[in-house]
Amino acid sequence: MGQKVHPIGFRIGTTKTWASKWYSEKGYAKWLHEDLAIKREIKKKMGHAGISRVELERSSTKCTVNVYTARPGIIIGKKGQGAELLKTEIQKLTDSKVYLNIHEVRKAETDAQLVAENVATQLERRVSFRRAMKKSVQTAMKFGAKGIRLNASGRLGGAEMSRREWYREGRVPLHTLRADIDYGYAVAKTTYGVIGVQVWIYKGDVLKERRQQQQQQQQRR
Asked: Which helix (H) or strand (E) holds 152?
């Protein structure tokens, strides 16, 4: 049996960092469930805005929610009304004071989560799975990805038996810790069953100097 390791979990502490940044001894379970509820709520309310990821930072009394999206205008809304409404909804889920930051994802074509969701949406619209996958692979490579692998598994094309199909272009070195691998997963709920879509995108190696620059940029934010 092939044992698969989550590419982001595998790199935490080396080239990747945590999606939730906080520490608590007594209230760990409470905060963990709050984090999961906040992420679910944002995905449910703003799924159409192309949300790549949600990162949370906490102190004893405040909770900062960073939403990375391909379409920030949809979340912000007219005169920031959409953002205020979302902030109010999140505030109901936690006792801490909520601060909401919305960041734009510049290249949605090379963001693994957004690519996976795009393919899943096309499968739900009954687009040919081969066409949808090939197009996404070509677009990602065109926009500067060094390698991409795309998996789709389930009743592809409405076949009686489920199977797995995958396409790869360029290099995707999953065993190399310094490799910057972005991973995304989405589910297409089609009329003939559920199809899972997985995407791995290789964006180059993260060297020590580059990692320090990224950390400095995050601290400035």
From this structure: strand 147-154
Q: Which of these, 189, 204, 167, 210, lies nearest to 120 by C-alpha position?
A: 189
131 and 186 housed in the same domain: yes
Q: Flag whether 2 is in a domain.
A: no
Among the listed residues 203, 199, 169, the one whose alpha carbon sits nearest the alpha carbon of residue 187: 199
Instruction: List, for residues 140-182, the tens digit of each pLDDT value.
Output: 999 999 999 999 999 998 999 999 999 999 999 999 998 999 9
Q: How many separate domains does the chain show?
A: 2
Cβ atoms within 10 A of the Cβ of 145, count? 24
CATH code, domain with 64? 3.30.300.20
Task: Provide the whole-model pTM.
Answer: 0.87
Tokens coding 153? 């598994």
- SS3 assignment, position 162: coil
